[in-house]
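Entry 14. Structure prediction run on the chain below.
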Amino acid sequence: MKAREIGLNQSKAAYIAEISERTGQRIESGEHQPNRGKVDEKNSKDPLGGVWEKELEPMLRKEPRLKPMTLFEYLQDTYPGKYPNVLRTIQRRVQTWKALYGPSPEVMFELRHEPGMMGLSDFTELKGMTVTIAGEAFEHLLYHYRLAYSGWQYAQIIRGGESFIGLSEGLQNALAACGGVPKQHRTDSLSAAYKNLGGNKALTRLYDELCDHYRLQPTRNNTGIAHENGSIESPHGHLKNRIEQAIYLRGSNDFGSLEEYRLLIEFVVAKLNQQCQAKFEEEKKHFQPLPKYRVPDYEMLAARVSRHSTVEVRCVLYTVPSRLIGRQLELRLYHDRILGYLGNHQVVELPRVRVTDTDKRRGRCINYRHVIEGLRRKPRAFIYCTWQEDLLPTTQFRELWVKLKTQFDLDTAAVLIVEALYISATQNLEEPIAEYLEQELIAQTLSLKRLKQQFVRDCSQSFPPLTIEQHALASYDQLFESSSISHDSPESLPESQSASEATPPVPYAHPLGIYRTPSATGAMVLLQIFINIMRAGIDSTPRSPTETSSLRGSTSHRKKFFQL
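Output returned:
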């Protein structure tokens, strides 16, 4: 007030008095209430009216886990209409009582992480968002690995649940990506790694071998206490939030292929790792080196291909190429695929299928490309085949089969659809074939001949044109000239050129007997030897070895031969 008396304005006077300008205005107008907002506890009435001390507080002493809403509902049921607006009061009373007399909450200690000491693994899923691949829902988990010191992360798509195969592949890929191995590996109580139902040894055999191979000390948090694995549980939320935001930014949760979805996750993880690159480079110095080879991250099975060109794996029937019928295959089961080996040669790769419908115990994975050649030889088998629906690769082909049965008799329809599938398999033309059949059925001009003509390959364009030059026919006259020369006597050759010089000897030919210029007498002797050999072969009268040697000895032949 003194500041106002010496002529200062309201704003400056309030600043000097260390009060607000609004308070100064109320003081000047006489509306200021110094005790405004304070409650006179002596004169105010307790809204709980003594029920707190008599009933509610004894209930809390007996069971401290009771919540304010439970106590409020108790009052409403016990005293209807007497305590209508006391919920907020009960909440404050319970909060104060627990701070004074309640049990102490668990203390969370801040931990110090050492570089290169611990890596953590866990599985998580995108809740509240359905990812689709080519329009179909894609069921999967995310394997998440994180280094406790630097925060470096790795994520991978896993199909088929929290299996050891998924854990092994994800962990080994993560260790290879970061370039080293920490000293400890921490998980929760994964059934793929630990025998949670008891036993002499807590670790499963496969997980124990995996950790031993990479020189990792396996550790886990106590069952049901997730915060002990907080270095991976909390980053789950950050990673999934980034993935969801990237999908929102993309504008669609439908991906054209699994590879496209995988690249989005890799991009998100790379952006997160940029924030801790400096600490990661520091931690890399403390890693153990990677071993020279990986532990197999697949399960081994053996199966013989049936005469139906199928193998059965975990209650799922798979088709394989028909050339493997009767062969024993070695199958390697990954979390998302199955590789078939015949000896050391990989002969087939199949997608891993799991039965998710609780009403079905068995499933099928049929690929028409594996059996189309045999089906083309017996097209009527398609009519009554138990896999008929599975042999048709798309919904459009299934609709075309219904239309074909309407326009044609059953046998003709089977021939047409099997031929269409054969062309689709051999020329990789599923969509063009389906569109062509659709158009021809609308025009009612479809026939087997038109179908083959439409998609026959022009082999003339597959090879470059060849230019062949016809040689002169007069060149054959040289053959007659050389023939006439060979029938002449040796004296017809020029005197300056001997027979040995006219025909040079072959360098690798072996001389028969004494090499000299052939004469007419030698030729007659050699001819007589050949005639005797031929007569001996033609004579069918059996002779004893003694008779043969007495009639024709080898010594005389050798003498005649060396006389040539």
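The longest strand covers residues 118-124.
Filed with the rest of this week's runs.
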